[in-house]
Amino acid sequence: MDKVFVIGFQKTGTTSLDLALQRLGYRVYCVDKNLLKFKNKSDLKNYILETLEVWDAVQDMPWPLFYKELYQLYPNAKFILTKRHPNDWYKSVIKFFGSIRIPFHKNIYHVPCAEGYEKEYKAIYNKHNEEVLEFFSDKDNFLLMKPKHNFDYKTLCNFLHIENVPQEDFPHGRNNNRRLLPNFKLYRDLRSMYWNFKKKY
Prior knowledge:
The chain is of the alpha/beta class and about 200 residues long. Helices cover about 45% and strands about 10% of the residues. It has eight helices and five strands; from the N terminus they run βαβαβαβαααβαα. It has a five-stranded parallel beta sheet with strand order 2-3-1-4-5, sandwiched between helices. The chain is globular and about 50 Å long.
């Protein structure tokens, strides 16, 4: 079984893809903040090799930032970029994170939080997607998946060379469209104040 690396940013359908990969028998590893601590590339690669010994796939931040290292270590792995329109992506990020000041997110986007920093967030998001597409432009172990476009078992199984395609619907992650409160800024601000205080962010 080849390893599978989901290298799209959070809120691009990664949770749905995580559930789908688990349904197909993959052991999926998610957030690992330790990746951002390494200054030495050799130490980083050794950490990745040790960590992924018992995992078949990864998804969620900050794994996408290390797609080049993952490719160098696992050139035969499968790489999947999940991608949404920047406006839709940012709206989803705002609904989920609001003004919560998450330290490792600050290391990625270089601003205190998501809300109020649309330009900065989108710049990092777009730059990542453009660079990934360019890097994998001549490689056949890469797949671009877009929610509401080709998020289905047939596309995924064809890419992974899996013959037994599940017949059920493709899984859906946390469906925030059913949650009305995050649409209101006052609610997001109060929620953010609570989490910033509780986590001492």
